[in-house]
Design a protein that fits this description.
Layout lengths: L19 H21 L9 E2 L10 E5 L5 E3 L2 E3 L1 H15 L4 E5 L5 H13 L5 E3 L2 E2 L5
Parallel strand pairs: 1-7, 2-5, 5-6
Antiparallel strand pairs: 2-3, 3-4
Length: 139
Amino acid sequence: MAGRRRRGEKLVLNAEINVVNLIDVMLLLMVIFMITAPIMQGGVDVSLPKAQARPLEAKTGLVVTVDRTGAIFVDKDKLTYEEFRASFKALADQHGKGGVYLRADQGVPYGMVVRVLAVMRASGSTDVGLVAEPEDTPR
């Protein structure tokens, strides 16, 4: 009877932690975060124009998006042009010195993009970046 202890024998305690289960949970959480992180980063769906440009450095800035219907979004908040014009300076001041990024769908009329850009420049934002998709390079 190897499994039973005799009277007077001391019970030997095992002070080791079984970390295999903890590693399994950690790997499962890592996979979940890897799948959901790109989904949560999306924002407003626009088809950006393609241009030969070098990528911008990753900065935290205010993102202004004009979708194909001409609707204006500041981060993810939808605004009319009049609301955007009236409140952009306050939003830019509140957001800090991270710069402003303009994302416009390639189907938006050029005049609308210029009007939005003019409001951004008139508010005193000097660091304005135009966001585009990189061109496909032939191989």
